[in-house]
Design brief:
- The complex is a heterodimer of chains A (about 160) and B (about 250).
- Chain A has about 160 residues and is an alpha+beta fold.
- Helix content of chain A is about 25%, strand content about 30%.
- In chain A, a hairpin with a 4-residue loop joins strand 2 and strand 3 (about 80-85).
- The model of chain A has no long low-confidence stretch (mean pLDDT about 90).
- Chain B is globular, with a radius of gyration of 23 Å.
- Chain B starts with a helix and ends with a helix.
- The chains are: A alpha+beta (about 160), B mainly alpha (about 250).
């Protein structure tokens, strides 16, 4: 740091000395700081919606019977794949882990591909090539009481947990 | 004996009403001219006198003035487009189509807004390169360069927020990708995306937020910074011509 000049030292000493003016200046600056902090907190809270009118993360994917064996079915509305493999049913997120585009299943190649930047995934969500940094996450799937496949889009699970019907 | 138009102009300029508005008075001396600039709230952002050289095409290629001209076109056409556009999910796309096929001159105004927006991004970058390669950013003008960087960012944010408003597939996926880029910010990324979209998806809240940013917050902020940008040119000795003019430049 640059050494203080005589004038700055004098000015500094005057500020450090607790006169009535300095006291009021410090109280004023302190109040502005508190008000600023409060405004920041209120602004943040106001700008974060407490209620969202977004579709529910839980999706009813219908009866298991409608998904033939070895099929990968995309629902573009909810952005999930329902996969029926020999070991059982599982749900994959169809949202590319790169920048959030909707991927598509290519039946002729048996892979999932993203139209935006060319990421490719296998049917189990694992990555074939980037730029996607992560595999497509598996989503929690269960059978409802009336026998429908249910998927929670907000609940990624570790892979290989399948639903057998 | 003066002829008609000159006579009439002189009569208006000497009237009490004119003098109550423009206090510099009439006449063509340098003093009167400089007073006219000084006493006008808009013109006083500029130097009261300029060297002939600053008007040469080669000095600036007029890129700053052209950037401002595109901004002015965007404000005027944008306000007119706002009269037919509702920032809501069921109506936004239909309103955009109405502007193209139903509203008289709607397609002209929309295209003018669109092309002026592309032109503005190009011109602002070109202006920046011209300033950089001529060295016009050097002291004492370094602070005006910083304001220029802020104006570049505002231009890009204006361009980005306007991208969502047609509410078509291009808009939706562009903002999906863009907001996911924002969420790559370390630690705060997810929060930034949530606040930006007003939710977890590009939906009604995001459309409204982008509309308010695009039509109100960003243009007003840009206008304030533009005013300071112009005023700093005056304070730093007018448009940079390469010949040192102020004390700060001569010391360099």
């Amino acid at each position: 740091m640059r050494p203080m000049s005589e004038e700055e030292k004098k000015h500094r000493a005057e500020f450090d000395e607790m006169t009535r003016r300095n006291f009021l200046v410090k109280v004023g600056l302190g109040s502005i700081a508190v008000a600023g902090l409060g405004t920041t907190v209120f602004a943040y809270q106001y700008l974060s919606p407490n209620v969202l009118y977004e579709p529910s993360p839980v999706v009813d994917a219908g009866k298991p019977g409608q998904y033939p064996l070895d099929s990968v079915t995309l629902d573009p509305e909810t952005a999930i794949y329902v996969v029926h493999s020999a070991e059982g049913f599982y749900a994959l997120s169809a949202t590319c882990t790169h920048l959030g585009c909707l991927t598509a299943y290519k039946p002729e190649l048996g892979i999932i591909a993203c139209p935006c930047h060319g990421s490719k995934f296998r049917k189990d969500g694992t990555k074939i090539e980037g730029p996607a940094p992560k595999p497509l996450p598996w989503l929690r799937m269960w059978l409802s009481d009336d026998g429908n496949l249910m998927v929670d889009r907000s609940a990624p699970i570790s892979a290989r947990q399948m639903v057998r019907v | 004996m003066r002829v008609f138009p000159e006579n009439y102009v002189r009569q208006v300029a000497e009237s009490r009403v004119w003098k109550s508005v423009f206090r510099s008075g009439t006449g063509f001396s340098n003093l009167k001219r400089s007073r006219f600039v000084q006493q006008n709230v808009f013109l006083h952002l500029f130097s009261v006198k300029a060297r002939q050289r600053v008007l040469d095409f080669s000095v600036t290629w007029y890129l700053g003035a052209l950037s401002f001209a595109t901004f002015a076109i965007l404000v005027i056409t944008g306000i007119l487009l706002m009269l037919y556009y509702h920032p809501s999910v069921p109506q936004a796309y239909a309103d955009m189509k109405d502007l193209e096929f139903v509203v008289s001159s709607g397609v002209f105004l929309r295209n003018l807004h669109r092309w002026a927006a592309h032109a503005m991004v190009f011109l602002v970058f070109a202006h920046m390169f011209k300033v950089f390669y001529r060295g016009a950013y050097r002291p004492p003008r370094e602070f005006n360069w910083v304001i220029g960087v802020v104006l570049l960012l505002l231009t890009l944010f204006l361009s980005y927020t306007g991208y969502l408003l047609p509410w078509d597939q291009l808009a939706f996926w562009a903002i999906t990708v863009g907001s996911n880029i924002a969420s790559a910010v370390p630690l705060l990324g997810g929060k930034i995306r949530f606040l930006m979209l007003g939710g977890n998806q590009v939906n009604a809240n995001a459309l409204l937020r982008f509309y308010v940013l695009h039509c109100m917050i960003l243009p007003v902020t840009a206008l304030l910074f533009i005013a300071v940008h112009f005023w700093r040119i005056r304070k730093d000795g007018g448009i940079y011509t390469g010949v040192p003019t102020t004390e700060g430049e001569q010391k360099r």
